[in-house]
Design a protein that fits this description.
The complex is a heterodimer of chains A (about 110) and B (about 120). By secondary structure, chain A is mainly beta. Helices cover about 0% and strands about 50% of the residues of chain A. The N and C termini of chain B lie far apart (about 40 Å). Classes of the chains: A mainly beta (about 110), B mainly beta (about 120).
């Protein structure tokens, strides 16, 4: 079965640095999402992307965050200036229809 | 988004059926009922979804109450690999585009499976 892949699996960065988390969605999927999960807490929606633009974003997704689909295959999440509270697992998801999302294995972001 | 209520935890014995309940008394007529699960240290995984009728797939069955105010995810024979957090999530069928699919996760039900 096709899979969503994410790189890196673990990213360690210093506070204030920029990070880019990468995702390769399943080909022919049209809907793309980022979620995050702080250790021990719920999975939280960040942003959805469809037709080359953001469809919806949560309150968490402020000006420090951006998403891009630079080449038709990758889907990236950029955090411009990381904070300690950005430490979390970040999950990318894609879907052909909104009824069934396929999640990647996640990137663990550690901000020191 | 309409809310769901699930028990915090449940236990099951291996190879026995498991019935995971979900209450969604404020569900609207256009809300789908989705179930996802999250195995330890993994991303969420789709299990099943339905609107009004009961649904079956290779992973599970979804039984939806006639008034749609509750549903039950049924694992027919639990295995150790089914130990996970199970999330019942409502999603509107209205609109198109990414906003239709955003999943709002609650705390879910942590299922433990005993050998």
């Amino acid at each position: 079965e096709p899979e969503v892949t994410q790189t890196p699996s673990h990213q360690v960065t210093q506070m204030g640095q920029e990070v880019i988390l990468r995702c390769v969605p399943i080909s022919n999927h049209l809907y793309f999402y980022w979620y995050r999960q702080i250790l021990g807490q719920k999975v939280e929606f960040l942003v959805s992307f469809y037709n080359n633009e953001i469809s919806e974003k949560s309150e968490i997704f402020d000006d420090q965050f951006s998403v891009e689909r630079p080449d038709g295959s990758n889907f990236t999440l950029k955090i411009r200036s990381t904070k300690l509270e950005d430490s979390a697992m970040y999950f990318c998801a894609s879907s052909a229809t909104p009824r069934r999302q396929f999640f990647g294995p996640g990137t663990r972001l550690t901000v020191l | 988004d309409a809310k769901t209520t699930q028990p915090n935890s449940m236990e099951s014995n291996e190879e026995e059926p498991v019935h995971l309940p979900c209450n969604h008394s404020t569900i609207s007529g256009t809300d789908y009922i989705h179930w996802y699960r999250q195995l330890p240290s993994q991303g969420p995984e789709y299990v099943i979804h339905g609107l009004t009728s009961n649904v079956n797939n290779r992973m599970a069955s979804l039984a939806i109450a006639e008034d749609r105010k509750s549903s039950t995810l049924i694992l027919h024979r639990a295995t150790l690999r089914d130990a996970a957090v199970y999330y019942c999530i409502l999603g509107s069928a209205l609109n198109y585009g990414g906003s239709q699919g955003n999943l709002i996760f609650g705390k879910g039900t942590k299922l433990s499976v005993k050998p």
